[in-house]
């Protein structure tokens, strides 16, 4: 069948389509009910309601049973430490089954939450799979987040245990995870029963950090593993949550995206062949982090469900040691697919514009280069295509969807790609462009990107502890549709062009951040009367936040000092990954007469784009001041 036929089949008869996909998984109990309405569910429907399975079983034990025990499941490659390991399916299963034993011995049972705050080391994946083995729910927090952000997530997920490591290793500094965790726990209202800490002693001496464990509360990973019992997988219902993953919304409070088990397993398995054209034995290199959805889906679960070998890379695209790092990985592990954010390739291009380093490596096993996380700009697309000679596929998805919404489905039919487009809706997704009143609009016209309900399996089922927010955020704006928060258009060949967010979410180096959250932090400074934060275009990171601030009258601080303190405050409260490096004091902000800050206008001025001064503006002079202030500021990556 062609892509078009398969897509149509999936939309016209979703139950038949997904029954076929689900039947390929080794469920403990095959579902007989595929899609059913259920008013108890926040979305109003559910997938595979009577199915039972275990994700850790499907990702590990199943492959051992199929004779793949000696095949590599996970390659760990860490240029920041010099360490490289390969875990076979047998070995990974052994670690996971025993670590599940450690968790069980410390009281973790089905439905309990476990927060994981770890660097990109195999133990992070082992922890995720071990939590899943017990039918518990993990919530991985990206290591670049500061203690306050971790505390917010601990309070929301209320974990029984937190799993962490002594420290993380960035190219130019060490990240003290354990002290950050201690701070987070003391800030949080909810207190976990215990922590499990992996001490990174197996790294070069200058990269070691000794971390003190508190007796009776902190458990040493390595010691606990010595006496651990292997644990068998626990069967869970398809609709039971596998994980909560926090993502930025428009307010200061992150959204805890809830992922079910059966729908996710089915969708990921399907995507591995249909989108990435990968099968058992193939190697996938996803250059992301387990703290992001891309890491959950295509470093850990997707490749392991498919019986592939996954590459877990603790390094950067550049400077660890150079811009040839990705090509080296592709050669060394014979990767058939690489998946990274466009910003990573922009960084490579900046350092090695002629791609001279690529000549040192044999990337003949590489079939396709996938990119997502932000818009793939045509210049980067052309550069990667030309230098590698490989097909480059931009595909669009979100933490909420858990797997791609639009792509060129290379395992179904290699559809031609168009620069600037993330190609075609993936089977299962009925993507539409709606105007602000919810009516579909014509081809090539920009509007709100929405997906007709029901969403396919694998997408979020609710927001943890807040079904009302789930409905308000995604389902109320356009009844019958999921509102994606992205704007764009569909051309006359059905290709989807995602042009950017329609809300206050920004994308910095492929990391999703909320300007609303940054505004809350900036506004908390005692010298700040009012502020706004917008995402301005950046040639390397896609976007960079900039803050415009009005000082309170009579405060005893210079504008320079305040600007420095605000930069430090956002780094302290949200984390280095926010890349908040520019705060500018001004005497007024452009507002409408009703008092709404014209953020869109500020963004256009910052980007040097043409703008029209709205007739509703309260104080047109404010624009001149903002334009002058922004012109004086050099935005540097
Ligand atoms: N733990 C702790 N700190 C982290 C971190 C982590 N896992 N990841 C990033 N940081 C820190 C960095 O050290 C940096 O700190 P600094 O301000 O002290 O330099 C800060 O957060 C900003 O990091 P980043 O935006 O990544 O900038 P960079 O200059 O270190 O690297 C790129 C630039 C383009 C190479 C890098 O952003 C990159 O590889 N991006 C790809 C992102 C990606 O894969 N996203 C996945 C979504 S699909
Ligand atoms: P995240 O939830 O962190 O994966 O971020 C999702 C957001 O990143 C989307 O809503 C988009 O704004 C953006 N995004 C992801 N992939 C793409 C893409 N291929 N093209 C354009 N924007 C993208």
Automatic annotation (TrEMBL):
SUPFAM superfamilies: Acetyl-CoA synthetase-like. Residues 68-452 form the AMP-dependent synthetase/ligase domain. It holds the Pfam family AMP-binding. CDD domains: PrpE. GO terms for molecular function: propionate-CoA ligase activity. Gene3D superfamilies: 3.30.300.30, N-terminal domain of ligase-like. Keywords: Ligase. Belongs to the ATP-dependent AMP-binding enzyme family. This is Propionyl-CoA synthetase. It comes from Aliidiomarina iranensis.
